[in-house]
Amino acid sequence: MTDRNATTQWTGDLESGSGSVTLDSSNAGQFPVTWASRAESPDGRTSPEELIAAAHSACYSMQLSGLLSAAGTPPRSIDTSAEVSFGPRGDGFAITGIALTVRAEVPGLSAEDFAAVAQKAKEVCPVSVALAGTTITLDAALG
């Protein structure tokens, strides 16, 4: 089992406060966060939703590569983006959906077979599984 760690230090109230997220395990540095960067404009700062998007796009790409390789059709390249939507819902704010878009070069694989493997990757990707209950859409194509 492998654990990964991140730490956030926050100062002040929600609307005017600020903080920074440190990716402890990778020592990749600090990322500033504010409520405004989360709910309005990034303005050079990140948000929990952007970090989820990064995790999801990376995890999905690795899962898809693994499934394609196991089927004997290793990809030449995979480009995945994840768009995490955040906004008002119920009594507060929530992630309202995630849109995955993937384009890949996979020699020897039909568009139909690629679509099936891409869908399977979405279903079993560990980040997708962790986000169960969130609507996740997929736009997958060769090209």
Automatic annotation (TrEMBL):
Region of interest (Disordered), residue spans: 1-26
Family annotation (Pfam families): OsmC
One GO MF term attached to the UniProt entry: peroxidase activity
InterPro entries: KH_dom-like_a/b, OsmC/Ohr_fam, OsmC/Ohrsf, OsmC_Ohr_Peroxiredoxin, Peroxiredoxin_OsmC
GO process terms (BP): response to oxidative stress
Protein name (record): Osmotically inducible protein OsmC
Origin species: Saccharopolyspora hordei
Classification of source organism: Bacteria, Bacillati, Actinomycetota, Actinomycetes, Pseudonocardiales
